[in-house]
Design goal:
Keywords: DNA-binding, Transcription, Transcription regulation. InterPro entries: Homeodomain-like_sf, HTH-type_TetR-like_transc_reg, HTH_TetR, Tet_transcr_reg_TetR-rel_C_sf, TetR_C. This is TetR/AcrR family transcriptional regulator. One of its GO terms (molecular function) is DNA-binding transcription factor activity. With 200 residues, this protein is mainly α. It folds into two domains: 54 residues, Homeodomain-like (Arc Repressor Mutant, subunit A), CATH 1.10.10.60; 116 residues, Orthogonal Bundle (Tetracycline Repressor, domain 2). The chain has nine helices and no strands. It is elongated, with a radius of gyration of 18 Å. The two termini are 27 Å apart.
């Protein structure tokens, strides 16, 4: 996992579950198996049966938790992307770093890096998959956009700064380096990318 000692992040508290308490470790094992299954076989080739076999559980264990492959991956998208809530360091660079670090962290994991091309390809034709991809990327992206808006309010960046374009350029740079160039961005590289984009 990519870490930076200069910034402290927090993990969102999971929403309360109804009924019998679930085993968080089993949930995590199923999510990991689902990511590995799609990364290996693509979205169309991945099945609940294959995910269950990878996780070492029965199909019923999955269907008790999620009604379909779509529901499982929506849950996975939320659980994998855990941006720090409400972080305002007072520094534009640090705020962007906190928002973008989870993206870099995810891309250091081979299973997730293998999963993304399949999901992106499927998302062009499948609304449910597209929604999952938006969930996957949207949380960290929104936190970065919020950081730009705070910086505008403080006068740290020009009022004309396009938050969406800046954030997409930064996040896109991380994805491009990982998926096309095979390079992993550590914390130092993430900071360097941010400073270069800001012209510092």
């Amino acid at each position: 996992m990519v870490q930076d000692p200069g910034v402290t992040t927090s993990t969102p508290t999971a929403a309360p579950r109804r009924g019998r308490p679930r085993d968080d470790r089993l949930d995590a094992a199923i999510v990991a198996a689902a990511v590995a299954e799609v990364g290996a076989k693509g979205w169309g080739g991945a099945t609940i049966e294959g995910i269950a076999a990878r996780a070492g559980v029965g199909r019923a264990s999955i269907y008790r938790r999620w009604g379909s492959k779509y529901e499982l991956f929506h849950y996975a998208a939320v659980s994998i992307t855990q941006p720090s809530e409400g972080v305002d360091t007072g520094s534009f660079v640090d705020d962007l770093f906190v928002a973008l670090l989870p993206i870099a962290d995810m891309l250091t994991q081979p299973e997730l890096a293998a999963l993304l091309p399949s999901l992106l390809a499927e998302a062009t034709n499948d609304e449910a998959v597209r929604s999952t991809v938006h969930t996957f990327a949207g949380r960290c992206r929104q936190q970065a956009i919020d950081a730009v808006e705070r910086a505008r309010a403080r006068g740290d960046v020009a009022e004309s700064t396009d938050a969406d374009a800046l954030v997409d350029m930064l996040a896109g740079g991380l994805v491009y380096r990982r998926l096309l160039l095979g390079e992993v961005a550590d914390a130092t590289a993430v900071r360097a990318l941010i400073r270069q984009a800001l012209g510092e």
